Amino acid sequence: MRIEKIEVFPLRLPMKAVLTLPRGPSRTLEEGKRVALVKMTDIDGRVGWGEAGPSRRWSAETLESCVSSIREYLAPALIGHEVFDIAGAHAKMNSELASGIDPGQPIAKAALDIALHDLLCKRLGIPLQDWLGARRASSVKLARLVSAATPEAAAQITRDGLAEGYQGFKVKVGHHKALDAQIVRAVVETAPGACVWPDANQGYTLDEAIRMARALERLGIQLFEQPVPMCDVYAMRKLLQATTLTIALDEAAMGIPFVIELIRREAVEALAIKVSKVGGIHYARQMCDLALNAGLKLIGSGLMDAPIGFAASVHLFAAYGIADPVDLNGPQFIAADYLAKPFPIERQTARVPDAPGLGIEIDEVKLKRYAL
Ligand SMILES: [Mg+2]
Fold first, then answer.
1. pLDDT number for residue 26
2. Closest CA to 169 of 152, 149, 150, 148
3. Is residue 21 predicted with pLDDT exceeding 80?
């Protein structure tokens, strides 16, 4: 079965709130959550959907770069390609846009990868999780992202999150350095017994990271995400030696070759998995298998994913049995989307849909409403 047509729909979805990273707001309310939807049709008229949802202050891709890369280079390379040859599809995409320390415009490639998986699972009549071949879990717990400038604001977000049923809280740190430990303390004290972990998005120097790790140890925190710059292997090793915390790498874990190098250098204990940053499900499942075989902890994450990226992540995280709450914060920040009916989430637990493919239905009228 071959791919006949690939269409791209750039959208702007309205947002409820702004998420702030150490480099500044991930996107403003005016900018909205910008995504490029991909509609992939095979010669029988069967359709798969994918999505690129870049976060320009997190990595270098933009909505504009994703749209032009897909339209000009990636999609033309896949026309006529056999639907069941996923590895071959990635080889073609990588020959068009080269991979380097990351898979080379991974977020753009992930859109086509997700569409391909959706399409082939629909052909087989199975949910994506069945294609992944593991039923370690059938649902995924969601974490509430706490992005606050003061301890008081962090406590308020946490109280609201508890009332909404969240059992896990990821706390953005690294941008209010003097207040960071107090912000985390406010979350821990407001939600005793909850799963709480800070993410610095590379915001600390090695010395700052060690000081913060000591403060986090005193708060009973167990996991600290991407404290130091992604390529600073020396700092990652030094930090591991200096703390009892588990250090999770996110930005440093964009591609499998660099993760292998980190394992060889004993500079990694846990990986944050994001379907989009690694170039799609094909690479994400390889990274999960690599991590599990190397004895690394897996945590689930995303890039404020809209429903297509969200659904792909839920299938993957359930397949790999990620039991801790995951940072799939799209529902927390995105005010409206393109689904015909809402994704099954109850008390902040997302259930793996059992319909074929991603198991979601796109309302194409809404694509016009949110078209850029
Ligand atoms: Mg992160």
1. 82
2. 148
3. no
202 Cα–ligand 1 center, Å? 9
Res. 23: pLDDT tops 80:
no
Ligand 1 mean position, distance from CA 249 (Å): 8
Is residue 22 predicted with pLDDT exceeding 80? no
- Contact between residue 44 and residue 17 where contact means Cβ atoms under 8 Å apart: no
Kindly give the distance from the C-alpha atom of residue 163 to the centroid of ligand 1, in angstroms, as a whole number.
Answer: 25
Residue with tokens 């504009």: 64
Residue 158 Cα to ligand 1 midpoint, Å, equals 19
Cα(203) to ligand 1 centroid in Å equals 11
pLDDT in tens, 149-158: 999 999 999 9
Domains in the chain, ordered, with CATH? 3-125 (3.30.390.10), 131-351 (3.20.20.120)
Q: Fill in the DSSP letter of residue 74.
A: I
pLDDT score at 24: 78
Tell me the CA–centroid distance for residue 226 and ligand 1, in Å. 6
User: Which residue type sits at 219?
Assistant: L
Report CA(339)–ligand 1 centroid distance (Å).
26
Q: How many A from CA of 21 to the centre of ligand 1? A: 10
Nearest to 18 by CA among 304, 354, 345: 304
Residue 290 gets which letter from DSSP? Answer: H
